[in-house]
Amino acid sequence: MKSAAQIAREVQSGATSASVELEASLAAVRARNEELNVFLHVDEEGARAAASRIDDRVARGETVGPLAGVPIAIKDNLCQAGIPTTCSSRILEGWRPPYNATVIDRLVEAGAVPVGKTNLDEFAMGSSTENSAFGPTRNPLDITRVPGGSSGGSAAAVAADMTPIALGSDTGGSIRQPAALCGLVGVKPSYGLVSRYGLIAFASSLDQIGPLSKTVLDSAILLEVIAGHDPMDSTSLPEPSPSLVAHVDDGVAGKRVALVRELVEGADPDVVASVERATVALKDAGATIIELSIPEFRLGLSAYYLIAPAEASSNLARFDGVRYGLRVDADDVTAMMEATRTAGFGAEVKRRIMLGTYALSAGYFDAYYGQALKVRTQMIDAFHRAYQQADLLIGATAPSVAFEFGAKTSNPMAMYLSDVFTIPTNLAGEAAVSVPFGTGEAGLPIGVQLLGPGRSEAQLLAAARVLEIADGRP
């Protein structure tokens, strides 16, 4: 499939049309969606109408936008007016939001054509997209393996050439980890850079929406479109969208890049080797390489699995069978709520709600949740010290290549360790990008992670572009 940048250029110039590109996308969806279980809902009628409007505007000589006619996949935890939005949970089955998420409005304004809603781990809780109430998504590169999670459907849509770009959300690695396992570029933006209005919350202090694509340039274009202040989100940074596309080819000359020991600890040997080769590629491009140890990173997993479930326990209390979504009738309101939540939530969501409720309960709040918040502060301070010594950090995105279905489902801790390298960035609210670099077991892609301080997306994408070129993807 063409890149988003190429499609937008050709649609705007008249060399192709939004309708032609959409039909190619829909044909790809029809060809593999049954096999891969990527899209939970395909909005063919709405997408065709949107593409037709773009073609009409081009015919009138109007400038459409940086994503003119580009098909895009939307993770099914983002609200789109009138379109089924389930979070891959039975408790929201059949719900159609009455409003758009801010990012949806910005995509449409930029000329993008939303194709449909993609599968995910239920309420974005998982690392493999095996936790969906509507069945797992398969990795297009090897259907016996997972695509990663929780944005596995969005990653698979791009990897299977169904759409050139997709939106995911990243709470503890849910964009970067599937990007690594599917051979894509995935960006976790700085907290507050992209509006969360219309994102169905998992953990509000950690969630952030971001792009998945096959190229660094496409991710830069998409992030530039969706970023910027939104008065509808009280945590939105009070500043305009940053200039990213103009800096993609800035390179890394003169930059200090730190290889972080804790960001490769425990990773498979081929993953470690890829990170080391990527570090050499940055050095060859003019960066100064140092090595750092940030021992606080080892505490990230423990802190995250107290903070995130605690916030989930609070956020998911609204799904009670009273106002929207599933309702299981019972003799009284209390019994109805219990029956609804028992039937509506899957095992992993229930596990995290119970963990979070326990951590917030009287007598345990200070020992668990309060302690985790102190660790989070230590993490933020550790990042701050690291960025006094280096401009960017480098490490692995995931400990291994894509693993086989069922390999970790019986051991929650083994599954949670899939995000051990990505979680620190979310706890600190910083920025990070995963870029494919090399291959490992069975020829499957390996993701290398670049981390930067808040608002460093331009630097990160420029460094990712250096690695993209070094990996032979000009």
Tell me what you see in this structure.
By secondary structure, this protein is of the alpha/beta class. The protein has a domain at 4-245: Amidase signature (AS) domain (Amidase signature (AS) enzymes, Alpha-Beta Complex). It has 15 helices and eleven strands. It has helices at 4-13, 18-36, 44-59, 102-109, 152-159, 176-182, 216-226, 269-284, 300-315, 333-344, 347-360, 365-389, 412-416, 423-428, 457-470; strands at residues 39-42, 71-75, 113-118, 165-169, 185-188, 209-213, 256-260, 288-292, 392-396, 431-439, 445-452. Helix 2 (18-36) runs antiparallel to helix 3 and helix 7 runs antiparallel to helix 15. It is globular, with a radius of gyration of 21 Å. The protein starts with a helix and ends with a helix.
Relevant CATH superfamily of one domain: Amidase signature (AS) domain
Low confidence ranges = none
As laid out across the biggest beta sheet, the strand order is: 1-3-2-4-6-5-10-11-9-7-8
* Strands, count: 11
CATH T-level fold name of one domain: Amidase signature (AS) enzymes
- Beta percentage is 5-15%
**General shape:** globular
Q: What's the number of helices?
A: 15
What's the architecture of one domain in CATH terms?
Alpha-Beta Complex
Counting helices, strands and paired strands, the structural category is alpha/beta
Helix content: 25-40%
Order of helices and strands: HHEHEHEHEHEEHEHEHHHHEHHEEH
Instruction: Supply Rg.
Output: 21 Å
| Name of the CATH class of one domain | Alpha Beta
Kindly report how far apart the N and C termini lie: 15 Å
